[in-house]
Amino acid sequence: MTTSFQNKTVIVAGGFSGIGLSTVIHLLDLCEAIHVIDVSDFPPSNFAQDNVYFYPSVDVSLRESVSQTFKSILARSPRIHGLVNCAGISPSIATIPEPDATFDRVMAVNCRGTWTLGTEFLRHIQSIHKDGLPTYSTSMVIIGSSASMRGYRSLAAYTCSKHAVLGLARAWALEYAQMGLRVNLVAPGSTMTPMFQAQLANSGLRNESTLQAVAQIPMARWAEPSEIASMIGFLLSDAASYITGQAIPVNGGEF
Ligand SMILES: NC(=O)c1ccc[n+]([C@@H]2O[C@H](COP(=O)([O-])OP(=O)(O)OC[C@H]3O[C@@H](n4cnc5c(N)ncnc54)[C@H](O)[C@@H]3O)[C@@H](O)[C@H]2O)c1
């Protein structure tokens, strides 16, 4: 696994927190360069390594912002080998039906953000394979959710956005397989990140009902972000060289 990352450059969007940050930490000692994009103004501190570049205040739903960031990244690293999109939001206060504004924002970040980042990366791949022959392999990992495969109460907009990005993964996997790109979706179950902690705090899922929810999971616990990051790292690596177009659940056996 280690050698398969040598001299490789990976972009992680939504990498200032949670699963994305854990992915950056997982890749730190493996990659030549990691470019980390996030809408937050405040990059994580305590990174001594000089192979990590932070791009704060970038909203993945906005084409202009994402295009400019890709230009800056390509100026530093002309060859990009991997893209991970962990940027995402989930409404933490449940109302049924959800307001239009919730639907619009969740779709903008989770779905359009995946589209915007993904298509910048796809254009890069087309530009390096002008003759149609792959010179090196590339991998895109989209972070979906258990909600890419199932419906969840009070989360209709989120469920819709996560089903939609599974469609992108499947279509792009077909379109770009012969350009050396693999596209897969990781579908985490509930994972102990700031996003999930906010949901727990706001949804009334406390004490007894929290215990009941955990009891539905065969492994009887939530995931740690590092357990999702290690699957993302595997899918980025050459160890996954024959895997594309797949949705991989990492959910403690929930389904
Ligand atoms: N935590 C879970 O239980 C869980 C389960 C399944 C799927 N997921 C998915 O995993 C991904 C990461 O979630 P997390 O739990 O680590 O959450 P998190 O809130 O800890 O991290 C999400 C990151 O995305 C960034 N972000 C949000 N909106 C953005 C935007 N418009 N542009 C750029 N960056 C933006 C945030 O600033 C944050 O750094 C999300 O796509 C989420 O839907 C999480």
Automatic annotation (TrEMBL):
Family stated for the protein in its record: Belongs to the short-chain dehydrogenases/reductases (SDR) family.
Full protein name: Uncharacterized protein
Short name of one Pfam family: adh_short_C2
UniProtKB keywords: NADP, Oxidoreductase
SUPFAM superfamilies: NAD(P)-binding Rossmann-fold domains (SSF51735)
GO terms of molecular function: oxidoreductase activity
PANTHER family for the chain: DEHYDROGENASES, SHORT CHAIN, ESTRADIOL 17-BETA-DEHYDROGENASE 8-RELATED
